[in-house]
DNA sequence: AAATAAGTCAACCGCGTTCCC
DNA sequence: AGGGAACGCGGTTGACTTATT
């Protein structure tokens, strides 16, 4: 049985790819698509196996890849997602457009791993960091002192944090800009993971919604599934951001809206 | 300047899952 | 339904570069 003939592995090249091989692979895939990876090297005239071609394409040749240093926002995102998901590099990479799982994994092992472990021990000493028991809303609305870490924020829009938006979607808020509630869910709990994830998205400019009201955090009494919920709901949020952005015509992109109006949780030291 | 240690990163390997004959 | 190929993922390796002694 099987779908293709066995390839003589002894004739297959290994090791670093030459520019000529890259060129052949790139041209072939751009013209024909990859289809079945095992047939790619045969059709492209490469002495590699399909697995190697796939890896080279995904990690190096694929259009849209970012090269170069990770930005501080990307670092924060990786740290937070890793806290939430563990070594799920492909899932983390999905949240970082233009970055590959391999690249993120390497970066984690070479840089972030150490930094994360040292910052964790520091964080344990800092009781001044906003704790899950403290209301985010209170910080934003000014009933708690908010220390801005640097940039000024355009404060004229009502601000809705993602978690709050999620709570709103789940029935927490019914303001004039609130979303339709498709199904009532139990309110959820701020777990550490959810908090880390929220933090990461604030850093990368993903959460703040203008319009809508502010709510308290909710609690589902279990904590499990929260991060998953957040992931799923974030997809909806991103659509909404894009939609909101389109309403501004040429004035703002969705990214700009987020970066101009969000308040990173990490900056809310009390 | 040379030797060596440490860091980086592209690529390989093995395993679990999915697909298809 | 069974079995092998293909795929995708995470862990690991090793070549290469940079820093340090």
Automatic annotation (TrEMBL):
Coiled coil: none annotated. Residues 9-65, 66-116 form the HTH myb-type domain. One of its GO terms (biological process) is positive regulation of DNA-templated transcription. SUPFAM superfamilies: Homeodomain-like (SSF46689). InterPro entries: Homeodomain-like_sf, Myb_dom, Plant_SW-associated_TFs, SANT/Myb. Keywords: Activator, DNA-binding, Nucleus, Repeat, Transcription, Transcription regulation. Residues 9-61, 62-112 form the Myb-like domain. Signal peptide: none annotated. One of its GO terms (cellular component) is nucleus. Pfam families: Myb_DNA-binding. It is found in: Nucleus. Transmembrane segments: none annotated. PANTHER family: MYB DOMAIN PROTEIN 55, TRANSCRIPTION FACTOR LAF1. This is Uncharacterized protein.
